Structures are given as structure tokens and as C-alpha cells.
Amino acid sequence: MSDRAKILTTEILSDNYYTLKKVTYAYRRSDGITETVVREAFDRGNGAALLLYHEERKTVVLTRQFRLPAFINGHESGFLIEVCAGMIDEGNPEETIKREAMEETGYRVKNVQKVFEAYSSPGAVTEKLHFFVAAYDDQMKVEDGGGRDEEQEDIELLEVPLKQAMEMVYAGEIQDAKTILLLQHYALKLAGASVPGW
Predict the structure, then answer these.
(1) What is the pLDDT of residue 157?
(2) Which pTM was predicted?
(3) What is residue 40's predicted lDDT score, i.e. its pLDDT?
């Protein structure tokens, strides 16, 4: 724990699909004054995200699916274009993203490369995302993908050139942060930049 922050009480406000907590903590400010703060934090666990890229064709595999929070927040259709991703329920991030790649895209990837970790929205959400990249080819496509029926997933697959994907970012057609981060990471690699993890 931090020497500047100490959790005093935690109250569970909701424990339905994920957990919403009301936390009271003591916090010593930079001026030395300690005050009591009350905040809510949404705990949905940690996740992993993967950009599948084709080295020769310079294409990427993306998904499109309905996202209720985006729809509630004004996204016209609610359908977001994203990289393959999922929550880390069992095993480690690498095992999780390989499983998610198979379920969502139908590609059996063996060699995934972790490039970084990041908190998705640290002001309100506890989630830390583990970001991966992996090359794909046509022989790795062994299933249809599309997600799992028991999780009510209905995922459409898209294979697009990286250049088009980046144009979609700047046109507002791709608005998912994890997807934008991984696309920019890959674009830097193709531009000849020194990119860690490649």
C-alpha cells in the first residue's frame, strides 16, 4: 500500500455482473494535509487485447460488436470496431488472449507478443489491460469465430489494410481506445520507428 493512502472502509454497492464499490480512504496530499475521501470504483477484473496483423499484406483483423455503454453514451448504432479482447477469468493474460482469439476470430495463434500494460480508465475503473500483437496467416484460420453463444456474443470479423484502419481512426469510425493504441503501435513499427516488443 502507498504511504500516502490508506483504505478505511469498502462498501459493495452492486455485485451483479461486475462489482461497484464505495471506498472511503485517508489521503495525504502533497502539501502534507491528510483528508478523508469517498469515491466509487468499478471492479470488472483485468483484460487482454490482441492485434492480429498480416506481415505481407499489411492487414489487420478487427471485430465489430454491439456495446451497450457506447450506445447509452450517444454512439449512433452502438456497434464498435475493436481488436480481439477479453477478461482474464482463468489463467494468465497470454492464455486468455489466445483463447479469445480463437473464440472471436477463429484464428489459432501460438506466438503472441506482449507489448505493454495500461489502466483503461483509472479515475473510475480498476481494470488493467495487457496488450499483445501476433502475426496471422490464412492457415491459422481454423474456426468461424464470432464469439460464444452462451455469452450472447455476436461478433463480425473485419480484415482491413492498416492504412484504412488508421483512416477509420481519424474519421471517427474506430473509437475504441485499446484498438487505437494497438493500431498506432503497429503503424509505428511499419514506419520504421524503434518500437519495443517487435
Answers:
(1) 94
(2) 0.90
(3) 96
Alpha carbon distance 163, 189 (integer Å): 13
Buried b (16+ CB within 10 A) or exposed e, 82-97: bbbbbebeeeebbebb
Q: Which residue has the cell 470496431?
A: 81
Rounded CA-CA distance 113/197 in Å is 7
Amino acid at 67: R
Let me know: does 97 contact 84? Beta carbons within 8 Å.
yes
Structural domains of the chain ordered from first start: 5-43 (no CATH), 47-190 (3.90.79.10)
In tens, the pLDDT along 10-21 reads 999 999 889 999
CA-closest candidate to residue 22, choices 35, 9, 36: 9
Task: For residue 107, give the nearest of 134, 143, 132, 131 by alpha carbon.
Answer: 143
Rounded to an integer, what distance in angstroms lies between the CA atom of residue 186 and that of residue 51?
8
How much of the chain exceeds pLDDT 90, in percent? 81
| Distance set, CA 121 to CA 43, 111, 129 (Å) | 11, 28, 10
Grid cell for residue 4: 500516502
C-alpha cell, 53: 496483423
